[in-house]
Amino acid sequence: MPIATPEVYAEMLDRAKAGEFAYPAINVTSSETLNAALRGFADAESDGIIQISTGGAEFASGTRVKDMVTGSTALAEFAHVVADKYPVNIALHTDHCPKDKLDGFVRPLIELSQERVNQGRNPLFQSHMWDGSAIDLDENLEIASELLAKAAAAKIILEVEIGVVGGEEDGVSNEINEKLYTAEGDFVKTVDALGTGEKGRYLLAATFGNVHGAYKPGAVQLRPDVLKRGQQVAAEKLGLPEGSKPFELVFHGGSGSLLEEIHEAVSYGVVKMNVDTDTQYAFSRPIADHFFKNYDGVLKIDGEVGNKKTYDPRSYLKVAEGAMAKRIVEAAEHLKSAGTKIS
Asked: What positions constitute the catalytic site (predicted)?
């Protein structure tokens, strides 16, 4: 199937919220990891989301170029061609973009999609994330409001973060403290500034102890009830019935989370869960195994030339692709999204 249209992406999110499941959002940095993500979703018979971070986009453009728009555009165009051969719907998304990178990443990408829409085509990406967690909430939401209007015009969904995700990702580090838990008042301020869809559809990354990186189960102190209370205070402000979930939530930093915590968070309205560290590890482990087992073959030892069958990148990348795909299948099963393909 082709990359999801804005209408199909909206239907995907509607189905997730109504069915209380979430889509894995898989970070990719190359055509090979993108192929692994596509294979994983196809093997799981699940629609899904593929996303590119600022660092991933820069890397994809080439180490001599280091341009985020070039790299993300190249991967997105590649995905539009290759995904057409798979029997699942895939949405393309850009991950955390802080204030100092907006002009070099999200804003030009929105403009690029606006040009496509003006030509009667679909946007290049289906959603973009604005990460204003490092600045004052009022400024965060002011910028979010501006971006939301532009995203809506380009048929794009915006993701907004309130609260802070701990740990490190793409060189950005945050301490593990009380800022990891979004305050109830912040949910209310978000409704005041962005509405609940009438100004444009958005996803909300509210934090409840989330930490980037790899952690053993139980090491991360998650409090999913923060999401529950956030939905409640927003519903109360809007005069909605008890049990309403006005927000479509995103789960960042899921590595090391207990399965019951994941399921609880999903029950409170999480429709998207970011997966990066786990799939990086799954991809790199078989490559390391290949090189250790074929040491003589991949290096020129004592004047020898090695074994082309073992140093040809295809010999180990195809195994890495399979391992990463398998991890995505597991993630889809954990999020109860397997079998949610839209025909």
From this structure: 95 (proton donor)
Strand pairing of 172-174 and 167-169? antiparallel
* Block residue for tokens 């971070």: 53
Superfamily of domain 6-335: Aldolase class I (3.20.20.70)
**Report field, pTM of the whole predicted structure over 0.90:** yes
pLDDT value of residue 165: 63
Selection from 264, 174, 247, 172 nearest residue 210 by Cα: 174
User: What is the per-residue pLDDT for 343?
Assistant: 37
Which residue positions form the known binding site? 96, 131, 161, 212-213, 252-255, 274-277
Known catalytic residues?
95
What's the CA gap between 54 and 101, in Å, rounded? 8
Separation of alpha carbons 5 and 9, rounded Å? 6
Tens digit of pLDDT for each residue in 140-190?
999 999 999 999 999 999 999 998 665 444 544 444 445 678 999 999 999
Which segments are annotated as binding site for Zn(2+)? 96, 131, 161, 212, 252
